[in-house]
Amino acid sequence: AQSVTQLDSHVSVSEGTPVLLRCNYSSSYSPSLFWYVQHPNKGLQLLLKYTSAATLVKGINGFEAEFKKSETSFHLTKPSAHMSDAAEYFCVVSDGDSWGKLQFGAGTQVVVTP
Amino acid sequence: NAGVTQTPKFQVLKTGQSMTLQCAQDMNHNSMYWYRQDPGMGLRLIYYSASEGTTDKGEVPNGYNVSRLNKREFSLRLESAAPSQTSVYFCASGSMTGQSPLHFGNGTRLTVT
Hints:
Number of strands of chain A: 12
Number of helices of chain A: 0
Order of helices and strands of chain A: EEEEEEEEEEEE
Largest interface: A-B, 26 and 29 residues
Oligomer: heterodimer
Number of strands of chain B: 11
Shape of chain A: globular
Distance between the termini of chain B: 36 Å
Shape of chain B: globular
Structural class of chain A: mainly beta
Number of helices of chain B: 0
Largest sheet of chain B: 7 strands, mixed
Order of helices and strands of chain B: EEEEEEEEEEE
Distance between the termini of chain A: 42 Å
Structural class of chain B: mainly beta
């Protein structure tokens, strides 16, 4: 069985400072991992994905995430937060071919202060 | 470039009423999904359809039915709404493998009183 834990329900950062959103996962197989972002009253948008290629994955809007198998982690980072980064972020795990069986984390709400 | 389109955007029902949430995608995806989003719980899968003509239960199917009308359309029906079904509902579509990301609609905010 697969599961995902987002370690922070809320993160507050100042504009221009780094952002770190933490995600740990468990999976019986080689997982695929995703980060999605949800702005208020919108659907989820894919930020980046890991599917067993390079362990450091670059996504849109300056975000990147590193897959660490030994730590079962897939943390999301951005060097410098922008006001437009205020949103909710979801870490998602999939057991490769188990489409339809994506497991979502509970989400991390990011607040960016001027 | 519509992507995934959901209707309606908002709905208020009384307990016991029925309604159907509509979803259509124009990306020629085989798989379609219905999720519900509740605070602090992420998204939970209600039903999914791997391809036209097939549907399967997800994590929280009780109280819902679905119809895969054709490759583009996947509807979710609440036969007798309950307050516990107050939630935001998202439709998504994607390729068949778990390595491919999903594309989401903008959601339907449902309140059952």
